[in-house]
Amino acid sequence: MRLPVPLLTAALMLSVAAAQRPGPPPPVALPGQVQPLAPGTRAAPTLPTLKLTPAIPEVRKVEVLDNGFIRAAHALVLLPPQDVSPQRALTLAVQSVQATYRADPPLAEVDVSVYRADTYRGFGGPLPLLTLSVPRARLGTFQSEITADTYDRLWTPETMERPEPPGSPVREPERLLVFVGTQAELLKQRLEQSLAQVRGGVRGGLLFKGNPAQRQVALTFDDVPHPLYFPLVLDLLKREHAHATFFIIGRNAEAYPYFIRDLVQEGHELGNHTYHHVRLPHLTDTQIRAELQSTNDLLTRLTGQPVRFFRPPGGEYSQRVLNIARSLGMTTVFWTDDPGDFQNPGVETVEARFTRHLRPGGIILLHDNAPDGLKALPDLLQVARKKGYRIVSAGALVR
Predict the structure, then answer these.
(1) What is the model's pLDDT at position 163?
(2) Is residue 391 helix, strand or coil?
(3) Spatial contact of 163 and 290, defined as CB atoms under 8 Å apart
(4) On the CB side of 388, how many CA atoms lie within 13 Å of its CA?
(5) CA 373, CA 366: separation in Å to the nearest integer?
(6) Which among 179, 165, 188, 213 has a CA at the least distance from the CA of 30?
(7) Burial classification of residue 284, based on how many CB atoms lie within 10 Å of its CB (0-12 exposed, 13-18 middle, 19 or more buried)
(8) Keywords in UniProt for this one (predicted)?
(9) CA 55, 60, 66: angle at the middle one, nearest 5?
(10) Which residue, among 276, 328, 281, 286, has the nearest Cα to 307 in the 3D structure?
(11) Residue 318, Cα to own-chain centre: how many angstroms?
């Protein structure tokens, strides 16, 4: 049974399973391989691509994107199964960087992901064989640094324990919160959120809203990092002198660890968005803990910092999920303002939704891999500041 529960200004759906928990969703080939659009929304725009000369047969495509100030490119390289040696992957990655800069000299950064052609299922599927990031400032030296084994923006898989894929990926973006639990648990959640809307702050390990008496809002990004979008988002935030909380998918962080280090170096905040981006209420306690703990361990190993915040993929959670997150020392963070950037509704619509829901103590939900969100970000920050709001991270919101 599903009960829509309007709580003050929050848009919240709490799903009740009074006598039983829902069964697991149908399995898919590879969890997290796709983050599809919500029903009824616009298709994602086709990104511009570069033509390399001479062509490199293994390069499937080179996409280019800009944030209004700089341009970045991402080259996708697919190796045939008969030739997947580390040396071949590295050689093609270096060639791809050189050819991409030749094709578009003003680029500020070129990133490369090398996969096996026979197992590639899109971004978010099996880990790449190699990733490489070359900002323009490193272009002249990266080859010699790679030879000397000192280049810090090259990644190849390590032998490490990873959580087993536990089920289907989330098939919708984070839109409405969905609580899965018993009637008693539902009533408790209704009370917690009602109090949070009035008083704000962390209550029982949950953060629905900051202090409504303070004119500040928290900026948060989900599904981090994406090799094309993330450098552009980080650049915009630096230009705007704004800090945010990034909810990171462990699989993405493992494949692009240098972006996680960039994030912390720029003064932003880490958040846990599970390792595989899966719905947690349908998993066992052991699986839930593995999804959260493995991501925490990875992020702490990369940055030396503990992970304080967690956001459930798809906005779907349960009392078990909350208890496990709390036992790992994390506060579960929700949101008050979702402009729907993942729906590709158009930049003007994203900005209008953002402005309409802007409130003191609010928590803004954006996504790292949404074109409309990227284009709208500078205007969103300017609108908030013109209205007298400070833009902060989730941690600063509750301090």
Answers:
(1) 85
(2) strand
(3) yes
(4) 5
(5) 7
(6) 165
(7) exposed
(8) Hydrolase, Metal-binding, Signal
(9) 95
(10) 328
(11) 21
Report whether 1 contacts 166 (CB < 8 A): no
Starting at the edge strand found earlier in the chain, the sheet holding 59-66 runs: 59-66, 71-79, 109-116, 130-135, 154-155
Nearest alpha carbon to residue 310 among 370, 301, 327, 302? 327
Name all domains of the chain by residue range, CATH numbers in brackets. Answer: 59-155 (3.10.310), 177-398 (3.20.20.370)
In angstroms, the CA 203 to CA 199 distance is 10
3-state secondary structure 181-241: ECHHHHHHHHHHHHHHHHHCCEECCEECCCCCCCCEEEEEEEEECCCCCHHHHHHHHHHHC
**The token pair that represents 333 in the structure block:** 């963070």
Q: Is the pLDDT of residue 157 over 70?
A: yes
Closest CA to 340 of 8, 11, 6: 11
CA atoms of 31 and 50, how far apart (whole Å):
30
Residues belonging to the active site: 222, 367
If one compares 66 and 35, the residue with the highest pLDDT of the two is 66
List, in order, residues 6 or more apart from 22 with CB less than 8 Å away: 180, 281, 282
CA 302 vs. chain centroid, Å, equals 17
Torsion of CA 152, 65, 58, 54, to 10 degrees: -100
Q: What is the pLDDT of residues 122-149, one digit of tens each?
A: 888 899 999 999 999 999 999 999 999 9
pLDDT band at residue 34 using 50, 70 and 90 as cut-offs: very low
Euclidean distance between CA atoms 61 and 78, whole angstroms: 10
* Per-residue pLDDT tens digits for 172-220: 567 678 889 888 888 888 888 888 878 899 988 999 999 999 999 999 9
Check: CB of residue 206 under 8 Å from CB of residue 356: no
Question: Is-cis flag, bond preceding 225, omega within 30?
Answer: yes
